[in-house]
UniProtKB/TrEMBL annotation:
Gene Ontology molecular function: any one: 3',5'-cyclic-AMP phosphodiesterase activity
Phylogenetic placement of the source organism: Eukaryota, Metazoa, Chordata, Craniata, Vertebrata
PANTHER family assigned to the protein according to its UniProt record, in alphabetical order: CYCLIC NUCLEOTIDE PHOSPHODIESTERASE (PTHR11347)
Species name: Sinocyclocheilus grahami
Pfam family, one: PDEase_I
Residues annotated as the enzyme's active site: 192 (proton donor)
EC number: 3.1.4.-
Cleavable signal peptide: 1-17
Name of the protein this chain belongs to: Phosphodiesterase
UniProt cross-references to SMART domains, sorted A to Z: HDc
Reaction catalyzed: 3',5'-cyclic AMP + H2O = AMP + H(+)
Skewed-composition ranges (Basic and acidic residues): 448-457
Keywords assigned by UniProt, alphabetized: cAMP, Hydrolase, Metal-binding, Signal
Gene: pde7a
Amino acid sequence: MRFKFFFSLWSVTSSWCIKKICNVRRGAISYDSSDQTALYIRMLGDVRVRSQVGFEPERRGSHPYLGVDFRTLHSRAESAGSIPARRIRRLFSFQRHLLSSRLLRGAPHLNPLHILDEDYCGQAKCMLEKVGSWNFDIFLFDRLTNGNSLVFLTFNLLNQYGLIELFQLDMVKLRRFLVLVQEDYHNQNPYHNAVHAADVTQAMHCYLREPKLAQSLTSFDILLGLLAAATHDLDHPGVNQPFLIKTNHYLAALYRNTSVLENHHWRSAVGLLRETELFSHLPVEDSLSIERQLGSLILATDISRQNEYLSRFRTHLDENDLCLGHASHRHFVLQMALKCADICNPCRPWELSKQWSEKVTEEFFHQGDIEKKHKLEISPLCDSEANTIASVQIGFMTYVVEPLFAEWARFSDTRLSQTMLGHLGLNKASWSALEPEASGSSEEGESEPGRATEEPSSRALSQGSQES
Ligand SMILES: *[C@@H]1O[C@H](CO)[C@@H](O)[C@H](O)[C@H]1NC(C)=O
Ligand SMILES: [Zn+2]
């Protein structure tokens, strides 16, 4: 049924899409869709695009939430006015691409500093001097850059590592790629938005500078690590995988209910790489390798596979057999670093950590409200009447964050690792103090990880899957 929809949509849309996308073979919309299809999926995913081409959400038939537009799920009143402009921009993504390359043809060569100076305010520039600090305030940086933290931070890091020069990245393509990545995050999501992506990228940078990694990673590894961090939640709808499955969302069908979101983030990233032709000057094997490894890194952020990665990590550490001269071992370490970066909120200083906790809970409760409204079973941790920010956080820290960071600290026994574990303990104590019933006595609760919560681990894990 659903595929029938795809094919009929395909024939309608193909009449207006430009030739390039029409090169995708008709049968490409399939489970193992890859490559070019990712471009198309990006557009399919946008309900507003569907309605532009004559497909109102109602006509899809497979979605019980007739008017639910995942892009505006979390929208607030004030964002309503900006939708038409965005809709037009996205609808004509490819035309826009053509137009911009036309406009830029013959434009004076842009150097990185020019791009920086153009938009920067002095304070943001100043902050970037401490971009490697664990206390980096990404919320402040986002305000100072007028909501462009992901673009500026990622651009700055790529430049700082010398990757732009080394890989001869075209400045115009790179800038376009980063702007599109940032735009494809949903600002309306309280948590899974471009600021989260910027925060994960900043954390990734901190880990890449840890001695064990800095000494062994190649420039290629660093490029992949930063790109994976920046794109790892691309186009996140603000609801979790179980929600997509139970509402028969087409992405769940497309990815066979397996790592649905992560597959979509990856495909979306590949779509943008191809659309902007960022790596088109590299040998085909290299750009394919980038796409493949990007996928393997992003898929590792699926928290439902947490135990698998954690036990592999533990076994390597027990046997002390990680050999970072091997590309496959370096890749595994990058996967673990990205996993840490993705769930490092509880390891940040309280003032930052607390804001993330509030945002992620807001997103969960919002999902719970939709589930309530549509008389669906309310997902674990999403019921605002049964959970508090504190109870959600304590469970998450105990069952997901602490075990991961304990192993990371074994692997990379540094001051940063100790700092992160220190904040984790303090933050957990702070939440316990705010939630006396969660641990009986907050003083006992904070020193005994096993006792500090009443959340069973499965609930904590499902929360994790939403945070990733
Ligand atoms: C995905 O899960 C739903 C609900 O359990 C099920 O109806 C559907 O057949 C599953 N799809 C695939 C491709 O496994
Ligand atoms: Zn994430």
